[in-house]
Amino acid sequence: MVQLGITPGQLVEPKAGRDSGKYYLVLQVIDDCYVLAVDGTVRRLENPKKKNIKHLILHGKIAKEIAGKLKLGERISNVEIRRALEGLLDKTEELPF
C-alpha cells in the first residue's frame, strides 16, 4: 500500500520531540495520517510506534529487502530491520544510537 508517497520499508525521521534524531523504517501505512514505524531496537516489530505523517521527515531511501518481504507478507526480524537501517544510514550519516 502506498499513500502520499510513503511506502513500507521507507526511511523516516521524527521532526521534533524525544524521538528527533532517530531513524525508523515504515512497517505499515495505516491511513492517510498515520504509519507504524520500527527501528529494531527500542521500537521492535512486536511493539511498533504509531507516528503521524505530518510529524515525520520522509527520506527517499527505501530498504528494498524489507519492502519486498513486507509486500509478499513474509516474516522479518528485528535484526533485519537494524541491518537495513545501518545500511541506509552508512551511505550518508552516522547511526545516532
Radius of gyration: 12 Å
Oligomer, anyone? Answer: single chain
Report the uncertain regions: none
Described by strand count, sense and barrel closure, the largest sheet is:
5 strands, antiparallel
What is the number of helices? 2
Distance between the termini: 30 Å
Measured as a percent range, the helix fraction is: 10-25%
Could you tell me the number of beta strands?
Answer: 5
Order of helices and strands: EEEEEHH
Keywords: Ribonucleoprotein, Ribosomal protein
GO cellular component, one term: ribosome
Organism: Sporotomaculum syntrophicum
InterPro entries: Rib_uL2_dom2 (IPR014722), Ribosomal_eL14_KOW (IPR041985), Translation_prot_SH3-like_sf (IPR008991)
Task: List the SSEs and their pairings.
Elements: E1 10-14, E2 24-29, E3 34-38, E4 49-52, E5 56-62, H1 64-72, H2 78-90
How would you describe what is shown here?
It is built from two helices and five strands; from the N terminus they run βββββαα. By secondary structure, it is α+β, with helices and mostly antiparallel strands. The termini are far apart. It comes from Sporotomaculum syntrophicum.
